[in-house]
Amino acid sequence: MMAVRIGLVGLGKIARDQHVPVLNASPDFTLTAIASRNAALEGTAHFATLEAMLEGQPDLEAVALCQPPQVRFEAAKAALRAGKHVFLEKPPGATLSEVKLLADIARAAGVTLFASWHSRYAPGVEPARVWLAGRRLRGVTIHWKEDVRHWHPGQDWIWEPGGMGVFDPGINALSIATHILPPFFLRDAVLEVPSNRAAPIAATLDAVTEEGVPVRAEFDWRQTGPQSWTILIETEDGPVRLEKGGAELYIGDVAQPLPPEAEYRGLYDRFAALIAAGESDVDVAPLRQVADAYLSGRRVSVDPFEA
Ligand code: NAP
Question: What is the pTM of this model?
Fold first, then answer.
């Protein structure tokens, strides 16, 4: 396959940290254009909007959308209708219905839509999934606790409706859990929302599998000091633990040898394979868990949050 000519929209933190370097090193893609309201990338054609980029570079074959979820639908719709393959950053949208509609539009246009979940490509996740297959579970505890001031400085969109607050990182844990565990559903949730914000700063989810195995998730953005991105799964054969967002895997207490971190390389390999096969991959299971928490969770007002 010839390298796919790709344009990138939204030159923010994740675009600079991951998409640009991974695309520049990829044999499958050539980064040929950037659409950004504020920023440019030396040596790459720049456009102020996605629409201008589509018009200015008609031979683009794909776009990667790295803006906040609230503005992603209109961009994805325009790109799909223009016949481009689309890579969606996580979460794939602000609502479940818009993501379903995008999948329908992609199918009608005969192009690939990829709803990416980068944490599923952390090195410990696949071996954990393989080890767990067929084993009997006793309980699951997720701790995703980090300091919002450190990780999300200046990101106002994250506190707005559709920004999802602490579910923005929490959905990464849910993307792993929905990938390696049997199906589970929410029984109870508490969302702690700062009195001056629209989105939660902390959330506790109590879910259960069909067999009644408890799955508890604690997300908190007020964590200073050590940060935790841990999933502990108790089984009849002992515990298995993912640490550091899936970068480390322990079976019992034994650290498993793993390849180096390459989440975004894995995502772009998958995107290239989907394009080559003429397929899409739009799994909304993690977003559905967040939607259920909003739907049935209890809201508690907590101290205002100032950045
Ligand atoms: P960010 O630093 O705030 O960047 C988002 C970019 O989107 C902005 O720089 C802006 O780029 C563009 N944009 C377009 N419309 C916007 C609007 N109305 N408000 C704000 N920005 C707008 O955010 P990010 O951390 O890169 O996150 C973007 C997406 O990637 C989110 O869905 C997030 O969950 C996901 N993600 C983030 C990380 C991470 O570590 N930060 C990791 C994985 C995934 P221009 O100025 O160039 O137009």
Answer: 0.98
